[in-house]
Amino acid sequence: MTVDNNDILIRLRYALDIRDRDMVEIFKLGDTEVTEEVVRKLLIKSKETYRYNNEVDAHDEIDDQEENIKCKNSMLESFLNGLIIFKRGKQEAKPGQPERPELKNNEKPNNILLKKLKIALSLTSEEMIDILAETGVIITKGELGALLRKEGHKNYKECGDKYARNFLKGLAKKYRG
């Protein structure tokens, strides 16, 4: 089962117990203006999420007026940037610091998700390993380091949906009990 951006927002909101108006504020801190109505539509699971092994179940008949808004990579990245500012405060860019490349809409945001959540929640690598272990996923410090590396680095490893999904599940266990 794949994790889409809407699912990431839904799981993050639940894990960190974020209210709709706080989500609007977080998006705003990440330079994206949204309303509470847009946030609510972003938090509706997409119809594809309900498909498993090409089977269709009753969820496929979701009322059209409650149709979700697809969360693009740029919107998710804006939310994650806003979450960092929301949790840690605004940091001024240092002179000569390179501009961060934006996520392209066809890229999977899982590596960036892990990096930005590590920053926003002030997590150490050991804490991230413990969060994943809580869900039954065993990862070494070296493997985690490879997931947190910049794309193009010789030790970079793409983060699969398994790690992203289980990390979000582990966050929910850690913050919600």
Secondary structure elements and pairings:
Elements: H1 5-16, H2 20-29, H3 36-42, H4 73-88, H5 110-120, H6 125-134, H7 141-148, H8 161-176
Helix pairs in contact: 1-8, 2-4, 4-5, 5-8, 6-8
Architecture overview:
It is built from 8 helices and no strands. It has 177 residues and is mainly alpha-helical. Mean pLDDT is 85; it is low at 49-65.
Low-confidence stretches at least 5 residues in length (pLDDT < 50)?
Answer: 49-65
Give the % helix: 40-55%
Specify Rg, calculated over alpha carbons. 17 Å
Tell me the fraction of residues in β-strands, as a range.
under 5%
Count all strands and give the number.
Answer: 0
SSE string, helices as H and strands as E = HHHHHHHH
Question: What key attributes describe this structure?
Answer:
8 helices; 177 residues; mainly alpha; globular
Q: Gist?
A:
The chain is an all-alpha fold and 177 residues long.
